[in-house]
Amino acid sequence: MLSVKDHNRESAGLTYVYPVVSRRSGGLSVGINLNPNNACNWACVYCQVPNLTRGRAPAIDLLQLETELTDFLHEILEGRFLEEQTPQWARRLNDIALSGNGEPTTAKEFGQVVEIINKILKELHLLGRIELILITNGSQIHRPDIQLALKRFGELDGQIWFKLDRATPGGIYQVNGIKLSLKRVRENLVIASSLCTTWIQSCFFSVGNFPPAVSEQQAYLELLASFKNDNLPIAGVLLYDLARPSMQPDSAKLSNPGFDWMNQLASAIRDLGYLVKLAL
Ligand code: SF4
Q1: In the prediction, which pLDDT does 9 show?
Q2: Pocket residues for ligand 1 (CB within 6 Å)?
Q3: What is the 3-state secondary structure (H, E, C) of the chain?
């Protein structure tokens, strides 16, 4: 039986497709993992991927992916999967999410994957009836092929969950393990939000029982305020703490900052005019 604490990408015994039950949606999410090699171009300190390595998605076997997704969706729609494998409250297909053990848009075949999803959803009459989500760190959005794929994804009503955990170069380096300027973050977000409905997705946690410094919170809120001033069409902010334990070396130092801390941050973001969904 699946549980909200279990995001094992191999739970269905498949390479690219895995099921997850989500309290947020109250249903079943079908994940597509384009990084079965556990390789990501970022190295987030809270990442839940075991044996995470720095790198890109491997070559994708598109035929296998298409077969896995088709068969698995048939099983959900016509078989006994929901009844036998999911808790009663989650027995509905909510979404297909491109998310996995690394950054999905590092896959060379990303555009072809979007077309495969489109084809299958059309065949199964699911287009427009379930959500389509891309969970991304946004790092590849400057690539013309990714922009073309995301334009298509947007036409299919796909939404982007764009990772933005901190708003200072130092904070980004500590949390996401990459050197990234705020100018680049803004450029990537401008492109993302011009192509698809885009949510900002942010994870906050304590290190050594200390929540993020006031200066980091301030920088984060100021960056969000500047997006508002620039009229960036951001759908809202998905605010997370550590839903599941990090699988990275510093995991023992990380903890949740607590309900009150997260709620105060959520209120401050709402005060800027954003819709906030808090997932604790
Ligand atoms: S971007 Fe995602 S997959 Fe990559 S290291 Fe961060 S949390 Fe893990």
Answers
A1: 62
A2: 40, 42-44, 47, 49, 52, 102-103, 137, 163
A3: CCCCCCCCCCCCCCCCEEEEEECCCCEEEEEECCCCCCEECCCCCCCCCCCCEECCCCCCCHHHHHHHHHHHHHHHHHCCHHHHHCCHHHCCEEEEEECCCCCHHHCCCHHHHHHHHHHHHHHCCCCCCCEEEEEECCCCCCCHHHHHHHHHHHHCCCEEEEECCCCCHHHHHHHHCCCCCHHHHHHHHHHHHHHCEEEEEEECCEECCECCCHHHHHHHHHHHHHHHHCCCCEEEEEEECCCCCCCCCCHHHEECCCHHHHHHHHHHHHHCCCCEEEEC
